[in-house]
Amino acid sequence: MNKDTIIIGAGFTGLAAAAELQNNQQDFAILEASNRLGGRNFSFKTTQHLDTPGVEYEHGSQYIGKSQEPLWSVVKGEPFYTWLKTHYPDYVHPDTPDTEYNEDTLPPYIVDNFAQRLDFPEQVLILRDENNEPKRFPFNKFQTPYCITGLPSGIGKRSVAAIGLVSLDILYIESCINVDQPWASDFKGVYTAKQLDAITLEQWLHEKPRRGYMTPTALDSITIAAQALLSVNPSEISALYFFWYCACNGGFFNEVNDAKNGPQQYWLRCGFGKVLKFMSKDFKDSIHYEQVIESVSVDEQAEFPVCLTMSDGAVHRAKKLIVAVSPHTANKIQWPAELDESYKVLMGQKMGRTLKAQVFYETSWWNDIDGTGWQGYSGGASYPVLWTMDNTACDANGQPRPCLMTFTIGDQITELEASIAKSGSDPDEALKRFLTKHISYLFTGEYDYEPAMEPIAITANLWAKQTDKSGFEKGAFIGGGPNTVFAPGVLTEPVQDGKSAMAFANTPWRDLIYFTSSEVARNYDPKTPDAMAFIKPKKAAIVPATQYSDNRLDLGYMNGGLYAGQYAAQQLIQGAEFKVRHHKMPAYSKVWNEVKTLAYVFIRGIEAFLELGTALHVISDSQIDNLISAILGDETRQCELKGGIGTQLKLRAVQLFNSNDEIAVDALAEVARVSPQTYQAILDGFTSDDPRQVDFLKRLFGQNRES
What residues make up the domain containing 316? Predict the structure, then answer.
């Protein structure tokens, strides 16, 4: 087969590239190693032991929110709805009963995962306590400290203070990230990009000033979120990579938001497999399955210079090649020896490891355990079942299918595999015992709660096969999930022409081979500036409006795959004339907003505070109370669904700047007023001429520093 363009991979990235080529009347073919569409997206219908008509589940990525454009517009659009009703009418059926949080306009195949949990307020997290021992923290979502959703009550004030401080640190770093060129990020003297890239996220969490105030509980609170996002431990990834990844996805506290308007509010009853079929319907005959590529070679003098040799010996040739798979997966192919080092470095990175399971029951027993309404949303840091979520949906007959979805990641998978191998028992039975006993413990504190131990069916998939170039296994071409992740040094260490590997991530090799994937997604049609922008509203807002650049929006997610495919296809189509589209930018103000100022003051103040030899764990309870009050405000207000720690910190920052609360400012000043060096560092870094922020600094420093 000779083609103008061959695309490797029929996931979201490959199909998006194909759609762009199709719209521009290009000649192309797609080669897919497996026997299905989707790559890391794998929709399936349960058939063994359980019939669920009109419902499919996902072994790959699953959740979607309104912020995920253009994917949201596809699944909610009339063309997809009409196509689904025509070709798969069983998947379009009445939704579960409406609640006040459901939207009338939602198509019946979209499940509001947030709304279905509303009536059940109890959750649980397993975190280390102050004695460094794992402990269950059951809590009511309406009775959380300082109205922070997802934060267990009973963790202690020092842990609350530590979570507030490290969250300000995270917000500050994100606000300084240049998403387009993370190696060029400017942190105003708090860090350098190279420093953050030289250490792991785990090392960052244990560096000063955090090692002077982080408790085991606070460390686990951040760890469990990082593990859930990337299916790796914080010790495996660069700190700069982690913060860059977060900034490209609306921020860390947006990524972990599973509530209303969050990125994981909905899932599709019809499965994303149907979306992939819809996307590819106009070029489905151009997709060739079970095409395993052994090697790629290049002869630039030939009419079709790119040569692909398949595992069965067949040879395909192309003028151009789009490699639309993750870097880790691309590394399974033998590439030309002269391929640039930058591409080799990216392909040499490891991938997360995820065991995702759907555990089906006769009843949603977790919704009522001795009168307690558990919402099925629980987990534990470094726990064998990292996270559970209620994945119940009604089938085509209106019958609810109670289901808990579970995630096990990284080292816990290794331990599970070793345990199953050692036991010598049936692997399916061993997996059932493993999952059910840990589900039981999450919700009851006991390992043998009978309703939890007797599921009617379990389906599980491990995106973690240890395959290499010579050891392909059926369906194991992915090699992990959800993403290829970057170790320390990848974003900043020079490997070619004095630049890092990432600097070449979106650059075609010799204008012949275009490597692209959601991990390095670039938006062909960005609408916001390169770095994080602070929008100066026309009138005062409750929370300062911030908007992250969409140059690399949804990095690592399904939407990122769509952006990546379109970008690479346009590079190929336009050739030397390629240009990213530019829009007339709205008026942005580059001044610091309130939360960034507050974060900077705390970071510098805490550094100086700890340099004087005073650790937060030895200061008095009243001082801790004052510190928390300065960070988070009044604990006595009635809690509703107010939002996560990021939202609360932004609200608090605005309160401090807009009020005359001298007590709170004085409490903050206890941290900030510890040395002349602190004053100078803060004032040197603070460049805003916003009168309210200047006034805030005057109030903070009082007579100790001339304004």
Answer: 1-35+289-349+468-521+556-586
Separation CA 631–CA 653 (nearest Å): 8
In the numeric block, the tokens 């660069």 are attached to 238
Task: Give the pLDDT score at 182.
Answer: 94
Residue type, 645: I
Which CATH number does the domain housing residue 310 bear?
A: 3.50.50.60
Q: Which long-range contacts (CB under 8 A, 24 or more apart) does 443-449 make?
A: 443/124, 443/366, 443/369, 443/374, 443/378, 444/369, 445/136, 449/369
Kindly report the number of other CB atoms within 10 A of residue 497's CB atom.
10
Is residue 440 included in any domain, yes or no?
yes
The one-letter amino acid code at 348 reads G
Q: What is the CB neighbour count within 10 angstroms for residue 25?
A: 7
Tens digits of residue pLDDT in 346-385: 999 999 989 999 999 999 999 999 999 999 989 999 899 9
Number of domains comprising the chain: 3
- Burial category of 161 from C-beta neighbours within 10 Å (exposed 0-12, middle 13-18, buried 19 and up): buried
Phi, psi of 599 (to 5 degrees): -65, -45
- The answer on 171 and 101 residing in a single domain is no
Q: Is residue 257 part of a domain?
A: no
Q: How many Cα atoms occupy the beta-carbon half-sphere of 249 within 13 Å?
A: 31
Contact predicate 255/263, CB 8 Å: yes
Model confidence pLDDT, tens digit, residues 294-334: 999 999 999 999 999 999 999 999 999 999 999 999 999 99
Q: Residue 245's closest CA among 187, 190, 197, 195?
A: 197
525-529: long-range contacts, CB 8 A cutoff, minimum separation 24: 525/580, 525/581, 526/550, 526/551, 526/553, 526/580, 526/581, 526/583, 527/583, 527/585, 528/585, 529/585, 529/588
- Give me the amino acid identity at 92: V
- Helix axis angle for 594-611 and 691-701, nearest 10°, is 20
Predicted TM-score (pTM) of the model is 0.92
pLDDT band at 166 (very low <50, low <70, confident <90, very high): very high
Q: What is the pLDDT of residues 95-132, one digit of tens each?
A: 544 444 455 678 888 888 888 888 899 999 999 998 99
Nearest in space to 437 (alpha carbons), one of 423, 421, 451, 425: 451
- The C-alpha torsion from 248 through 253 and 255 to 260, rounded to 10°, is -130
